[in-house]
């Protein structure tokens, strides 16, 4: 949390909806980001497990969520790096 004010880049954050351990910290993280005036976008992929973009793990991989996250990432990079 003490490093959040050091963030100077816009963030794109992808969260798996079923990842309760990680997601438990989203609200506190958002408060820290807001307080530091960090620009960010958060996407939560409902029904997806932690590591949903890992196509080497059949148990966790969620193609629909992974494709959506990838598309959003490419669009984000095109916008921010243009």
Rg value: 14 Å
Q: Helix amount, in percent?
A: 40-55%
What is the number of helical segments per DSSP (H or I, 4+ residues)? Answer: 3
Uncertain regions spanning at least 5 consecutive residues: none
Residue-averaged pLDDT, rounded? 97
Shape by Cα distribution = flat
How many extended strands?
A: 2
Strand content: 5-15%
Element-by-element helix/strand order: EHHEH
Number of domain modules: 1
Q: Give the distance, in angstroms, between the N- and C-terminal Cα atoms.
A: 30 Å
**Main sheet attributes: strand count, strand direction, barrel closure:** 2 strands, parallel
Strand order of the main beta sheet, please?
1-2
Return the structural class. Answer: alpha+beta
Protein architecture, described:
With about 80 residues, this protein is an alpha+beta fold. It has one domain (about 5-80). The protein contains 3 helices and 2 strands. It has helices at about 20-25, 25-35, 65-80; strands at about 10-15, 40-45. Strands 1-2 form a two-stranded parallel ribbon. The longest helix is centred in the C-terminal third of the chain and has 19 residues, at about 65-80. The model has no long low-confidence stretch (mean pLDDT about 95).
């Amino acid at each position: 949390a003490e490093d959040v004010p050091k963030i100077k880049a816009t963030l794109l954050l992808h969260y798996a909806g079923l990842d309760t351990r990680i997601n438990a910290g989203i609200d506190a993280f958002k408060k820290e980001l807001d307080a530091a005036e960090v620009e960010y976008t958060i996407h939560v992929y409902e029904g997806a497990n932690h590591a949903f973009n890992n196509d080497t793990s059949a148990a966790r991989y969620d193609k629909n969520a992974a494709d959506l996250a990838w598309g959003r990432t490419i669009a984000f990079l095109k916008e921010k790096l243009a």
